[in-house]
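Researcher: I'd like a candidate sequence for this fold, 131 residues long. If you have to choose between options at a position, lean toward the conservative one.
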């Protein structure tokens, strides 16, 4: 649901306000970001328990590489959610390098660059992905 629709409804509560703020940040970030074939967009999707990352070519509308905390190789992993996000970032960087992708544009999807998002980005950079 878009931020304007939520605002128009005046649906209350702090959770709705957080949702509106995140949607606004996401729109603001996406208006300036676009992935190309040479430098695709790295999209982070975060839920309360899981984290998913995709590398997307926006000119074609295709997902080139993806990784998730639900992948078979990471499903039994232990540790905090930030540590798991770091493992997902390293896995994504490994798969991207295998697909011939070295440089990406980072799209945090309106999430603040802290915690799991920062851990994922640092791990992906450490594994050789440039952004």
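Model: Candidate sequence:
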């Amino acid at each position: 649901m878009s931020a304007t629709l939520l605002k128009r409804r005046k649906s209350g509560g702090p959770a709705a306000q957080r949702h509106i703020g995140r949607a606004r940040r996401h729109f603001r970030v996406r208006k300036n970001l676009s992935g190309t074939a040479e430098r695709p967009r790295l999209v982070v999707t975060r839920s309360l328990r899981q984290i998913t990352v995709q590398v997307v070519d926006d000119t074609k509308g295709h997902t080139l590489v993806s990784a998730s905390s639900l992948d078979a190789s990471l499903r039994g992993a232990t540790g905090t959610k930030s540590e798991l996000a770091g493992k997902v970032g390293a896995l994504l960087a490994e798969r991207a390098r295998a697909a011939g992708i070295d440089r990406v544009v980072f799209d945090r999807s309106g999430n603040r660059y802290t915690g799991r998002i920062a851990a994922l980005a640092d791990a992906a950079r450490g594994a050789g992905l440039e952004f």
